[in-house]
Amino acid sequence: MINVDDKIQELKERCAKANMRLTPQRIEVLKMIAGVNTHPDAETVYAEVKKVMPSISLDTVYRTLTSLEDLGLVFKVDNELAKTRYDADLTPHCHFICVKCGAVHDVHINDYIKAPDESYDYGEVLQTNLQVKGICNKCRG
Amino acid sequence: MINVDDKIQELKERCAKANMRLTPQRIEVLKMIAGVNTHPDAETVYAEVKKVMPSISLDTVYRTLTSLEDLGLVFKVDNELAKTRYDADLTPHCHFICVKCGAVHDVHINDYIKAPDESYDYGEVLQTNLQVKGICNKCRG
DNA sequence: TTATTATTAGTAATAATTACTAATAAGGAA
DNA sequence: TTCCTTATTAGTAATTATTACTAATAATAA
Q1: Please, where are the H alpha helices in A53-108?
Q2: What is the largest CA-CA distance in chain B?
Q3: DSSP letter string, chain B
Q4: Smaller CB count within 10 Å for chain B: N or C?
Q5: What is d(CA A75, CA A90) in angstroms, rounded to the nearest whole number?
Q6: Which pLDDT does position A56 carry in this prediction?
Q7: Mutate which: B135, B137, B138, B140, vs A, most A CBs within 10 A
Q8: Model pTM score
Q9: What is the pLDDT of residues B17-41, one digit of tens each?
Q10: What is the CA A23 to C1' D22 distance in angstroms?
Q11: Beta bridge partners of B105
Q12: Tens digits of residue pLDDT in A33-89
């Protein structure tokens, strides 16, 4: 599990560097995502943060998630489900995604490569795929 | 590139087995996806199929894509973009996704593992991630 | 403390996808 | 082939995740 305090410290530094304000909304949203391993969607983040900050709006959560992504503190977990899921753990790792309930679990790549069948206990594997993301040559000009 | 005729043949067999009707809409939609390597979204499939079948509706395209997926003839390419992209090539392979324009290119896994930097010429890599999809233990009961 | 302006709350708008209904046509039976 | 049954379709309305807009608020620097 990642260290939430370290994460908030990083938020402070990156906001300062990017000339962005360190708002309690940003702190709470990041704290929430970094504190769980469930890879929550925007609505879930909203519901959780609302408990400690009842005035926060859904719009702010969406905007904040985008800001945190721009700052390189969280990223979107690719999935074919309806809702976008977020992860604050930036160390290289993979995900097991249940296509039925949408649960997202971390998978440790080295263990998985060594013994895909025994390395974890998440469920029945239907498909494994590798995504490489970047900027294509056309877009680089 | 996959053989479109073989793909249509498979559609016939699977429809028969699944008690689903072999409609011209299903044939045209599958033909379109199988005939390109651009991993089109629903709207693009709609626009293309409309050229040869002007009466087709967008709703039918969406339903047909789901049917073809259920039949195991196409699958959704995971991406964090707004629109879902489809692929009819079921042989194990990976994708390079441009986070700027949304272009999706095929990447051949063995080449990529051997020499990630030289194996292809799609663009600048920002992130590589592996997704494992399946049914989690909870959902299996 | 004050001023500047990025950020927020609240709400409206957008866009992808799904649901609904009457009409149509695929495919089996006669 | 022709007729029937009912899955499927076209057209449109509804839904749902996400984004945009605006006036009010509050984080930072002077």
Answers
A1: 58-70
A2: 48
A3: ---HHHHHHHHHHHHHHHT----HHHHHHHHHHHH-SS--BHHHHHHHHHHH-TT--HHHHHHHHHHHHHTTS-EEEP-SSSS-EEE---SS-EEEEETTT--EEEE-HHHHHH-TTTS--SEEEEEEEEEEEEEEHHHH-
A4: C
A5: 8
A6: 96
A7: B135
A8: 0.90
A9: 999 999 999 999 999 999 999 999 9
A10: 20
A11: B96
A12: 999 999 999 999 999 999 999 999 999 999 999 999 999 999 999 998 989 999 999
Cross-chain Cβ contact A133/B127 below 8 Å: yes
Six-digit token pair at B85? Answer: 């992209």
- A127 to chain B, any CB pair closer than 8 A? The answer is yes
Query: Which residue reads 């949203």 in tokens?
Result: A29
Nearest to B22 by CA among B75, B89, B74, B67: B67
- B55 in helix, strand or coil? coil
Q: How confident is the model at residue B16 (pLDDT cuts 50, 70, 90)?
A: very high
Within 66-105 of B, beta carbons closer than 8 Å to A belong to 75-76, 78-80, 84, 92, 94-101, 103, 105
Distance in angstroms, CA of A20 to C1' of D28? 10
Kindly indicate the confidence band of residue B64, based on its pLDDT and cuts at 50, 70 and 90: very high
- CB contact (8 A) between residue B131 and residue A78: yes
Mean pLDDT to the nearest integer, A106-128: 75
